[in-house]
Please model this.
Amino acid sequence: MMILDLKKIFLNENESLTLHEEIDLSDVQDNFREPVSADITVKNRAGIAEFLADVAFNYYCECGRCLEPLKKSYQFQFSHILIAQVTDDESDDYIQAPDYKLDTVSLLRDDILLELPSKFLCKESCKGLCPKCGKNLNEGSCSCVTHEPDPRLAVLKKLWSE
Model:
């Protein structure tokens, strides 16, 4: 957990802070086998603190269709407006930093998890697995009969054959 003390930033116009951080998210998900690299800048512009982060990481997962292991590389940029005072107005337009303190790991963890896609594919044209035998159809076809008529239409087949 990395807590930034931003009192100097909030109280001094044009003040800024830049740092590099390696964030371990392996306790959140097994997919994060390597640390997330984050370049963070916090600036005070006209009395408003702005949080900027460039993150890069590798994400290990399986294809959602064929179950092949994947290593996906991602780079994201995040920005937030920070406020020091808690107000009565609940809004997602800003991040509160009570007592001028900000937990950067928690903030970036949430940003990254929200930005990740819900489904991972090895390629857009992935054919997946055969529903009968389980063969990876990207490696070639199998001998299974995949087309089965709808059982609700079996009555019509009887009429057709008579």
